[in-house]
């Protein structure tokens, strides 16, 4: 009861007026990172399509789809996504001094974890929706892959 009123006043005067601008500032790198995840997934599936169009090999297609499942755990391929979020380091430095925000690395790490989780969900959903072994007509496989990719991206 003693702390409630001064804390409420402090938040109302010193924090609340800045929340919208702070959120906008932070969402830039976060959105950019998640957009990069989306682009990476799109690029990888397009490579699977191109490879299948060249080879028309169902075994190779299955291998490529299985390899896609490793994408979220490939630090090399996910690195461009993670780098987008590292811009938060600079933005959060200002917040650290103004609002006493600590554990900046934790915020960045959690955001990167969410990005990896999103990619895991995307590749898992793709694999569930597209099973090359159930495809009888190889001519329709490319169309099916494209439709599944668009569905996952949606």
UniProtKB/TrEMBL annotation:
All copies of domain Niban 1/2/3, residue ranges: 9-154
InterPro entries xref list: Niban-like, Niban_1/2/3_dom
One Pfam family of this chain: Niban2
Family that this chain belongs to: Belongs to the Niban family.
Name by which UniProt lists this protein: NIBAN protein
Organism per entry: Psilopogon haemacephalus
């Amino acid at each position: 009861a003693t702390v409630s009123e001064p804390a409420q006043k402090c938040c109302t005067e010193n924090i609340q007026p800045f929340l919208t601008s702070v959120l906008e500032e932070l969402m830039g790198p976060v959105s950019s990172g998640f957009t990069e995840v989306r682009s990476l997934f799109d690029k990888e599936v397009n490579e699977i399509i191109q490879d299948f169009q060249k080879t028309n090999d169902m075994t190779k297609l299955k291998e490529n789809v299985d390899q896609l499942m490793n994408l979220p755990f490939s630090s090399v391929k996910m690195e461009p996504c993670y780098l987008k979020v590292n811009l938060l380091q600079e933005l959060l430095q200002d917040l650290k001094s103004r609002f006493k925000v600590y554990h900046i690395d934790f915020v960045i790490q959690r955001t990167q974890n969410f990005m990896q989780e999103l990619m895991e969900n995307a590749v898992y959903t793709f694999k569930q929706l597209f099973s090359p072994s159930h495809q009888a007509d190889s001519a329709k496989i490319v169309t099916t892959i494209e439709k599944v990719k668009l569905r996952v991206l949606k």
